[in-house]
């Protein structure tokens, strides 16, 4: 009789390779497909006008199947926002402030190649100005954190004598963010206009010459 404690070596190898298998992999793929559908529909219709039925149909599952993964519309919205934030934060790394700013500009360039994502963000940000919107607190917090991050980067450069601007660090951060939002919106309307990343790089280089090097 085989020892009950014997473990199949192939099973160990499968478990140890870090890849999801069986129902776990299927669940992850289904959730990704649902969030993909949300991004497309939020960009086209906004959050409020998008229904569970719309999302389920585009994702290729039943309404009941969708609700199994995301019980509420708010859960769907949070999943979309978290995906977007992870993409952004993972792309911006570096120990030096100039390296960080170049990573920020590279992220701006990446957004130029993702018009659906920019459209979704633009629509949701406009909707979320209403304090009753489920994403209102998210965007309020995001703007505060992003402005603080940029101001800290500019502050470190100013301390090194590498910022030539009458504006404060917070004002420079706020103007950069406003310019970014506006340029990406224009680029949605007309993709022949100046690329946002190029214009933003030129804007910052006026005050931070080291970015030109």
Automatic annotation (TrEMBL):
Record bears the keyword Ligase: no
Molecular functions per Gene Ontology: DNA-binding transcription factor activity; transcription cis-regulatory region binding
Region annotated Disordered, chain positions: 1-28
DNA-binding region: 51-70
The UniProt record lists the keyword Transcription regulation: yes
PANTHER family according to UniProt: HTH-TYPE TRANSCRIPTIONAL REGULATOR BETI, HTH-TYPE TRANSCRIPTIONAL REGULATOR RUTR
Protein name (database record): HTH-type transcriptional regulator TtgR
Source taxonomy: Bacteria, Bacillati, Actinomycetota, Actinomycetes, Micrococcales
């Amino acid at each position: 009789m085989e020892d009950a404690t014997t473990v199949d070596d192939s099973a160990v190898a499968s478990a140890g390779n870090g890849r999801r298998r069986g129902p776990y992999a299927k669940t992850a793929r289904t959730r990704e497909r649902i969030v993909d559908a949300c991004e497309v529909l939020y960009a086209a219709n906004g959050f409020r006008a998008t229904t569970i039925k719309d999302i389920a149909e585009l994702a290729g599952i039943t309404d009941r199947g969708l609700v199994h993964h995301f019980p509420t519309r708010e859960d769907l919205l949070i999943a979309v926002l978290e995906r977007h934030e992870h993409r952004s934060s993972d792309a911006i790394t570096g120990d030096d402030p100039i390296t960080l700013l170049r990573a920020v500009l590279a992220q701006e360039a990446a957004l130029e190649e993702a018009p659906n994502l920019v459209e979704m963000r633009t629509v949701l940000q406009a909707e979320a100005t209403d304090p009753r919107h489920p994403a209102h607190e998210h965007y309020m917090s995001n703007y505060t954190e992003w402005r603080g991050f940029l101001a800290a980067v500019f502050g470190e450069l100013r301390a090194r004598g590498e910022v030539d601007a009458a504006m404060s660090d917070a004002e420079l951060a706020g103007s950069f963010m406003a310019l970014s939002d506006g340029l990406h919106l224009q680029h949605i309307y007309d993709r022949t206009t100046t690329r946002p990343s190029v214009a933003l790089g030129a804007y910052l280089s006026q005050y931070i010459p080291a970015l030109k090097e």
